[in-house]
């Protein structure tokens, strides 16, 4: 993985020890939440990441306030020195079969960049949820490297629940840890991304690879997760971004934006689901 700074010779914001990034999954909630955070905290693009395992893509400027023709690329790095936060936005998926390799490369880059705390934002399929929450509020789940069992006192104090399906002794989590530590592929184990049993679903997701590889580099890593379905998940992204702010002690009400509670909605969201339906059809 190669970092290309916007300003030649400048490293990836060593004065900002916290990094937030998405893990691609159902509903793209993690990506939407990172978009919202970049726009709201006024983060500026400081570089690009070149990674062969990420599919190429290109688009117009995502944040505005007006489209200026600046190209958006698959992996971009942003920084907000006033909040001591850096962010990486991933806009396209990883080549099938390369997720662990991608996570290892990214974890290595994060480590040498001097980051201390990595926050991974992602979503889980609501079809996998074992208990239905009738409260109406979205529950945030987490796993953390703070303790061996994935618990974290700070997350518990915020009312979040550790992901029950995280079991560091389960065979796929053990195998993922084995790979993250740089060991060779065990030919007798099924492919990491092949789903075999229900308990294999969670360690087969991108957030699990990022968690395991960052943990293997002795980085503090916290995964913030929510259940969702495919569709318009903008409301979910607000809650996931808000959870990241709570963990970092940042108050979104101070953003003074164009959305709810001070959030600044990205320019690209105006067309994320296309134009409204022609009401003359109804």
TrEMBL record:
Database matches in Pfam families: PAC2
Keyword annotations of the record: Chaperone
GO CC terms: cytosol; nucleus
One Gene Ontology term from the biological process aspect of the record: proteasome assembly
Keyword hit for Chaperone: yes
Function (record text): Chaperone protein which promotes assembly of the 20S proteasome as part of a heterodimer with PSMG1.
Assembly mode: Forms a heterodimer with PSMG1.
Similarity-based family: Belongs to the PSMG2 family.
Protein name, UniProt field: Proteasome assembly chaperone 2
Organism: Dioscorea zingiberensis
